[in-house]
What we know:
Elements lengths: L1 E4 L5 E6 L5 E8 L13 H8 L11 H8 L3 E6 L4 E8 L3 H16 L5 H19 L2 H14 L12 H6 L2 H11 L5 E7 L3 H11 L22 E5 L7 E8 L7 H12 L5 H9 L3 E11 L2 E10 L4 H18 L3 H18 L3 H15 L4 H10 L3 H11 L6 E5 L5 H8 L18 E4 L5 E6 L4 E9 L12 H8 L9 H10 L3 E6 L3 E9 L3 H13 L5 H16 L5 H13 L13 H5 L3 H11 L6 E6 L3 H12 L48 H8 L1
Parallel strand pairs: 2-6, 7-11, 13-17
Antiparallel strand pairs: 1-2, 3-5, 3-6, 4-5, 8-10, 8-11, 9-10, 12-13, 14-16, 14-17, 15-16
Helix pairs in contact: 1-7, 3-8, 9-12, 9-14, 9-15, 10-11, 11-15, 11-16, 19-24
Amino acid sequence: xxxxxxxxxxxxxxxxxxxxxxxxxxxxxxxxxxxxxxxxxxxxxxxxxxxxxxxxxxxxxxxxxxxxxxxxxxxxxxxxxxxxxxxxxxxxxxxxxxxxxxxxxxxxxxxxxxxxxxxxxxxxxxxxxxxxxxxxxxxxxxxxxxxxxxxxxxxxxxxxxxxxxxxxxxxxxxxxxxxxxxxxxxxxxxxxxxxxxxxxxxxxxxxxxxxxxxxxxxxxxxxxxxxxxxxxxxxxxxxxxxxxxxxxxxxxxxxxxxxxxxxxxxxxxxxxxxxxxxxxxxxxxxxxxxxxxxxxxxxxxxxxxxxxxxxxxxxxxxxxxxxxxxxxxxxxxxxxxxxxxxxxxxxxxxxxxxxxxxxxxxxxxxxxxxxxxxxxxxxxxxxxxxxxxxxxxxxxxxxxxxxxxxxxxxxxxxxxxxxxxxxxxxxxxxxxxxxxxxxxxxxxxxxxxxxxxxxxxxxxxxxxxxxxxxxxxxxxxxxxxxxxxxxxxxxxxxxxxxxxxxxxxxxxxxxxxxxxxxxxxxxxxxxxxxxxxxxxxxxxxxxxxxxxxxxxxxxxxxxxxxxxxxxxxxxxxxxxxxxxxxxxxxxxxxxxxxxxxxxxxxxxxxxxxxxxxxxxxxxxxxxxxxxxxxxxxxxxxxxxxxxxxxxxxxxxxxxxxxxxxxxxxxxxxxxxxxxxxxxxxxxxxxxxxxxxxxxxx
Length: 697
């Protein structure tokens, strides 16, 4: 890359990239929503629309047509700090690039501000505002920004309000343009199959006589207020959304890279902490996110989720507990490495395209004053350590700076406020010395214990039994799932409430599960609470209470879930597919049963099922993470030795009937269609099993 500043102040960067006959041109101006004066809210975005309404040399739509003739795309965007015009074209000759540059500069220097066109664009933007106002995600995001940034311009929506946009006239839009659209406020980036000397010559010619606009009025830094806050949105949305928010660092801050890694590990991707806890382990939410939006004069951090119906407070508790857990114990090095590599991969993918490179440079030079800032950020991400992640978790996600926006008609302000005040439960215990070697022990009754220690600050225990869907019967379909839901609803001397409190005190997430071929328990916990957590695992495995009151609660939840099944076409399609693939096998049965089968279940059924299948020969316990193997044995051995020594065999089943090509149509949902095509695969011992896995991937 080469870059220089011309005499009129225009910053020009050129990256010669000859891998394909493509060129991308970005022309960005250091002016945005933050430059709007009182009464001008939304004028920056409206100006962006007006740039496409023609110039003295090009009529309405002719700029886009010129770019599209070259197989290209012309677009623009506005945020709080910049307005950017950009085009990427198939660069078949020097004339193609010259015309692309001419189009962008012409649009920026000589826009026509026609009153009739402005009236039409006002209506277009107002409709855009209305669409955002109908989008619960956008409503929550705007409310969070307004609370984090307060009176700062970053707290205002880029689009403005319907009232403010309706008030903008030609004089106001032209005045805003004149204040910001000068060469001294612009960055021009050209990336692609071009010659640098030719580019600079063309840019000089295009910018001849272009008068500077003058320096940008300085904008104050967004202040980081203290104190918790709660904002509950009372709107008739069907969706429920919760977003936790904190003030974040500005662009270029020394903590920015570590914070990006932290938030990726918390809520970006299927392997992130919150996704695993809220979606996979406890099914409290259907989506999770964690982001940081850093801008030149401040930033905001958001951690949010879409809870399942009735699970808002549980999901909020779980989210706050996971954040606190990271602050107290840090994060496993493998998770940090995975998140760091994911970010670096995204940055690498961006640098593979001309448009991506141009966008990186525009943001770096325009917003940070350094054309290479994006490369320095990449280096900073690569250097992030577990200690950095733990430090920024404590400093930037502090409870005293935490707020929450809650969109859920079923949750009162009082209940949400109380949930938000979840705090520390005291100091963690000292870590213990750990053996690096795996341990395997088989007890006389057949139970097997595996321990795989490492040096991390967290640990997990899984109890796995053969069964699950393989044990289902038509008259009691759903038994496995119902049994698994009750495993953590009280054990031994602890009823459901006491057991839940014991889990909270040990910062332990413990739940049962039942899948197609296996069933059991899963628990995650901080290493410092391993002994208490493993004792709860043992109690849930050996002494579940199966109380009638708890079964009544679980049954109602399962029935509610079945009632709402028609709203989930993807799940309906999958259940239908299993019915067709396994016509005489237990896998054809609905995993959560039916209203009639669930009503047949009760305490005696659960106790009989447990006694028959939870025997030593059918139990494998695996503990992994920052644990002491000797302590694990001492805690779990008394529980495992109590398991029955009865041999275990899966029930014999008739051979699976052949599958005929079938097309089945079911009606579900209202806005979506789901298509699922399936065929049988192979069992664990099938010679083509791994080839099929690879083919599916």
